[in-house]
Amino acid sequence: MKNRHILPLATIIIVVGGLTAAVIFAVPWFPTQASVEAGRVDQLTWFLVIVSGVIFTLVTSFVVYSALAFRTADDDESDGPPTHGNTKLEIVWTVIPIILLAVVAVWSVVVVNRNEATAKTQDVVHVKAWQYAWEFDYPTIGVSSGDLHVPQGTQVRLNMNSFDVVHGFYVPQFRVQMDVVPGITTHLTFTPNKVGTWPVVCNELCGEGHSQMRARVIVQTPADYAAWAAQAAAQVKTAAAAGTPIPMATH
Ligand SMILES: [Cu+2]
Q1: How far is the CA of 156 from the centre of ligand 1 (A)?
Q2: Treating both helix axes as pointing N-terminal to C-terminal, what angle do 3-26 and 36-69 enclose, rounded to 10 degrees?
Q3: Backbone φ and ψ of 89, nearest 5°
Q4: Pick from 179, 143, 140, 147: which is nearest to 160 by CA?
Q5: Positive or negative CA dihedral for 185, 188, 192, 197?
Q6: 160-196: pLDDT as tens digits
Q7: How far is CA 144 from CA 147, 158, 195, 238, 248, in A?
Q8: Which of 70, 131, 180, 247 has the lowest tally of Cβ within 10 angstroms?
Q9: CA 105 → CA 36, 48, 167, distances in Å?
Q10: How confident is the model at residue 1 (pLDDT cuts 50, 70, 90)?
Q11: Which fold would CATH assign to domain 122-242?
């Protein structure tokens, strides 16, 4: 590359790179990380975003600079010089994406394997989905709830069934999602690591009430969770003894 191109091109790269970095880093793109899985997913996502930002900066800068620096005069009708590619350049822009894609592929497999690994202790919850609601059943204590209560620090396994169409169980703060499909049982595991209340969102367009198909996941300390479970189980027992309908657990 000729020396006279270096300074203006470098200036454009710095300006475009600065703007790109500002958009990437100044905007809080991701919601809170509230599960062990979220950290792994976000690391991979950040890698993809930053690599994309670098490539975007280089391509945009070269295009902008070329359009400015190699513009012909308005009355120049002559053909450009004949060129037959540039083998070195083509090898570079083929090999670098191959390496990047290989890294992303291997990294993705590692993240999925670690996120789906079964822990020694799991809390199992049955999830029922229909147009347009969620229900969470706790088989060990015989309780049903409209909110998903889970203890902090224990892996949760969801066994999920749909009674009508395909729904999508998604908690943005956990960065995990799984379709809930009629006729089969699908599974999802996650380990909440932050106490708080997060939205459960249906993330599969399932009908006109799709956007209303929301619930809450309530992550509690193990002690608070045990207290909730005991209280909810007691309510069910009392109702069964009195012959009244079994209540949904309250929060
Ligand atoms: Cu749905």
Answers
A1: 21
A2: 150
A3: -60, -40
A4: 179
A5: negative
A6: 999 999 999 999 999 999 999 999 999 999 999 999 9
A7: 9, 14, 21, 15, 5
A8: 70
A9: 21, 11, 27
A10: low
A11: Immunoglobulin-like (2.60.40)
Those residues whose C-beta lies under 8 Å from the C-beta of residue 91, and which sit 6 or more positions away, are none
Residue 160 Cα to ligand 1 middle (Å): 13
| pTM reported for the whole predicted model | 0.83
CA distances from 29 to 26, 42, 172 (A): 9, 11, 12
Domain boundaries defined on the chain: 3-69+89-116, 122-242
SS3 227: helix
Token pair belonging to 170: 């998604």
Distance (Å) from CA 65 to ligand 1 centroid: 49
> What 3-state DSSP class applies to 244?
coil
Ligand 1 midpoint to CA 38 (Å): 23
Q: How confident is the model at residue 236 (pLDDT cuts 50, 70, 90)?
A: confident
Rounded to the nearest angstrom, the distance between the alpha carbon of 178 and the centre of ligand 1 is 12
CA of 174 to the centre of ligand 1 (A): 18
Q: Using the mean position of ligand 1's atoms as its centre, give its distance from the Cα of residue 170 in Å.
A: 10
Gap from CA of 166 to ligand 1 centroid (Å) = 7
